[in-house]
Amino acid sequence: MKAVKVEHVVQETPDITTIYFPSIGEAHPGQYFMVWLPGVDEIPMSLSTIGDPSSISIRVVGDATRALSQLKKGDKIGLRGPLGNGYTIKGKHPLLVGGGTGIASLTPLAEEMVANGVKPTFLIGARSRSQLLFKERLSKLLGLGLVISTDDGSEGFHGYASNYAGNLITKGGFDNVYICGPELMAVKIWADADRLNISVQASLERLCKCAVGLCGSCAVGPYRVCRDGPVFDSAKLREVAFDFGKRRMDASGRMIRVDH
């Protein structure tokens, strides 16, 4: 665990905040840190910027994310990591699909791809135009390679990102698909790609407590998301298909239905 000071804070959208802090070690796109706020909680967060400074992007969903979103320059947080595995760049024609704050995890991947001579198509989806994360950052990076969907039709494709992604995948031309976002979105995109034998890497989200694979709260099939993920490839996604998009464990250890 290392304590770092917040360098600056950016309000990205009405409900997403990005916190910048000094880098504490080499990380790869898709890896995560356990972020600790004394007296509040420790939660997993993927990096939305890799380098110095690094960043995490937060949407308020509970006490810990609310406390993180209220941090100011000079406040301290504890970081444990980087942890887990990340995305692996494969192929020459990748499609990236990020929904909501899932865009944050895939943005450093898009930047690394471009740096390595691979220019992806990146579909970002949100409920409305005002909730699109990193639109300007990605537009500068990708130009026409950035495509957009909004649930309410306020920008880009009118409908769910999963439906637009399905259209793009069916038209052909992509050799790899990378997904991060709501699980019901991810499982539909994976199924569409898998039917066409297109390789998929998806970042899964589960309740992570220990981050070392011992407590089992983040189990998906025989795997632990904290240790064996958070990024799973097509072979492992097929292996955990009875859990993926269907059920997860809540804080009490009870299995509940995946509903988003």
The coarse overall form would be: globular
Helix content class: 10-25%
Helix/strand/pairing category: alpha/beta
Quote the CATH topology of the largest domain: Rossmann fold
Provide a descriptive summary of the structure in words.
The chain has 260 residues and is of the alpha/beta class. It folds into two domains: 2-81, Translation factors (Elongation Factor Tu (Ef-tu), domain 3), CATH 2.40.30.10; 94-257, Nucleotide-binding domain of ferredoxin-NADP reductase (FNR) module (Rossmann fold, 3-Layer(aba) Sandwich). Helices cover 24% and strands 33% of the residues. Helix 4 runs parallel beside helix 5 (183-195). The longest helix has 14 residues, at 102-115. It is globular and about 50 Å long.
Give a quick set of tags describing it.
Rossmann fold; globular; 2 domains; 260 residues; alpha/beta; 7 helices; seven-stranded antiparallel sheet; 24% helix
Condensed summary:
With 260 residues, the protein is of the alpha/beta class. It has helices at residues 63-69, 102-115, 135-142, 161-171, 183-195, 225-228, 234-239, and strands at residues 2-5, 8-13, 16-21, 32-37, 41-49, 54-59, 76-83, 94-99, 121-126, 146-150, 157-158, 176-180, 199-203, 219-220, 223-224, 231-233, 247-249, 255-257.
Per-chain topology:
Elements: E1 2-5, E2 8-13, E3 16-21, E4 32-37, E5 41-49, E6 54-59, H1 63-69, E7 76-83, E8 94-99, H2 102-115, E9 121-126, H3 135-142, E10 146-150, E11 157-158, H4 161-171, E12 176-180, H5 183-195, E13 199-203, E14 219-220, E15 223-224, H6 225-228, E16 231-233, H7 234-239, E17 247-249, E18 255-257
Parallel strand pairs: 8-9, 8-12, 9-10, 10-11, 12-13
Antiparallel strand pairs: 1-7, 2-3, 3-6, 4-5, 4-7, 5-6, 13-16, 14-15, 17-18
